[in-house]
Design goal:
The protein is α+β, with helices and mostly antiparallel strands. The protein has one domain: Gcn5-related N-acetyltransferase (GNAT) (Aminopeptidase), CATH 3.40.630. The chain has an eight-stranded mixed sheet with strand order 1-2-3-4-5-6-8-7. A hairpin with a 5-residue loop joins β3 and β4. The longest helix has 16 residues.
Length: about 180
């Protein structure tokens, strides 16, 4: 378990598929965790997705739980972990609109950054954020992620092509800036 001030993170478990299914039934936008995420309402496909994570050393998915109520409120993941070059892609998703912009995302991101740099000894984290996802851009910039690139018109969303922004954070930048929420 990884613990923040308002949240704790637990590795995803098989029983969490039920929660994911409920979130999907509410038509939540899972592209917030990854602009290229593809999720299905089919529980068998979610089961296959979960099984692909269990023994994959390149992926760590955590359920974000509210510390006060112990309830699942979102997901945060490290994906495409490159152990040789010590970097990973990061994505975050707060499932409930009424819990966004309340500090849960910031606390979750800070917790996983600390875990990534100090426990996993990664050197760099990066995020892919669709250019229309202003809250995520603001969140990552708050933690000193720097815009490293733009994949122009890379995502087809709502009948138009939009840019995909690449943000990165180096361990030394994080240590130097001593960021807290």
């Amino acid at each position: 378990m990884l613990k923040g001030k308002k949240i704790f993170l637990l590795p995803i478990e098989r029983h969490d598929i039920i929660t994911l299914t409920e979130w999907l039934k509410k038509d939540l936008d899972f592209s917030l965790i990854s602009p290229t995420a593809l999720f299905s309402l089919n529980i068998d496909e979610l089961e296959n997705w979960y099984n692909s994570l269990v023994y994959n050393p390149r992926v760590r998915v955590f359920v974000i739980r509210n510390i006060e109520h112990k309830t699942p409120i979102g997901l945060i993941e490290l994906n495409n972990i490159d152990w040789k070059n010590r970097n990973a892609e990061i994505g975050i998703f707060i499932a409930y609109e009424n819990l966004r912009r309340k500090g849960f995302g910031s606390d979750s991101l800070l917790t996983i950054i600390n875990f990534s740099f100090y426990e996993l000894n990664l050197f760099k984290l990066y995020a892919k954020i669709s250019s229309d996802n202003y809250p995520s851009i603001k969140l990552f910039e708050k933690f000193n992620f720097k815009k490293e690139g733009i994949l122009r018109k890379n995502i087809y969303k709502n009948n138009e092509y939009i840019d995909l922004l690449i943000y990165g954070l180096l361990k030394e930048e994080f240590i130097t800036n001593n960021i807290d929420i």
